[in-house]
Amino acid sequence: MQNNLPLSFQNGYGPIGPYGRFAPFGPLPLVGDWFVFESGNFSRADCSTLVIRFCWNGLPENFASYYHGYSISPSMNNRSFKVDFYLLEVGFPRLLNERPLDLFAEDEKGVLVPERLYKLKMDPRWLAACGFRIRMVLVGPADGFGSVGYPEAVVASALATAQGKRTLALHPPFAPLLSAVEVFWEDGSAHLQDPQTILF
């Protein structure tokens, strides 16, 4: 592990240790589940944009194929999974994005890629003197990562097999794993400054 500057993590299950890959939303992510990352050493008077880089581990090629056989409407695809980011200030959370953002990124062929980069507009007055706390909340799709629809899909697959129909093996509900988180800030000239990184 390389830890250049301190970031700490937490989700609905409690604090997340700084060793090994981890599931930011927990083992069975549902809408409303969240992931918080924070630093006590990140206060910039000229911060105009917060840049967040996630590196995902073990993504499938695409979610349309991965969730084949699930009775989910609309059907899953790479852009089904949406998140909101909040700056956790004293008293209330401040939404940092105008509309829900894609949790994952894909290449021009529709294949999922490990790296996802976000740029969130900031006002320097929002940053506390002691640092920042950012909460990422899963806001879509309604079935989360499929754990609600999975039992029904298993039953349907078993019935089809009993009737002599050929079916593809079902994948279990996916639980995304993060292997790296980086946070940068941009000043008014859009230069990246001061990486705050934790890599696994």
Q: How would you summarize what this structure contains?
A:
With 200 residues, the chain is mainly β. 8% of the residues lie in helices and 36% in strands.
Would you give an account of this structure?
With 200 residues, this protein is mainly beta. The chain contains 2 helices and 13 strands, in the order ββββαβββββββαββ. The strands form 3 sheets. Strands 1, 2, 3, 5, 6, 7 and 11 form a 7-stranded antiparallel β-sheet that branches. Strands 10-4-12-13 form a 4-stranded antiparallel β-sheet, with no helix packed on it. A two-stranded antiparallel ribbon has the order 8-9. A hairpin with a 4-residue loop joins β5 and β6.
Task: Set out the fold topology.
Elements: E1 8-11, E2 14-16, E3 34-39, E4 49-57, H1 63-66, E5 82-88, E6 93-95, E7 101-102, E8 105-106, E9 112-113, E10 115-121, E11 132-140, H2 150-162, E12 177-186, E13 192-199
Antiparallel strand pairs: 1-2, 1-3, 3-11, 4-10, 4-12, 5-6, 5-7, 5-11, 8-9, 12-13
- Overall body shape: elongated
**Mean of all residue-level pLDDT scores:** 84
Please, how many helices?
2
Total number of strands: 13
Contiguous low-pLDDT stretches (5 residues minimum) are 1-5, 189-200
Tell me the helix content: under 10%
In what range is the share of β-strand residues? 35-45%
Structural class of the secondary elements?
mainly beta
Measured on Cα atoms, how large is the radius of gyration? 19 Å
The total tally of domains equals 1
Distance between the termini: 5 Å
Sheet having the most strands: 7 strands, antiparallel
Q: Please write the string of helix (H) and strand (E) elements.
A: EEEEHEEEEEEEHEE
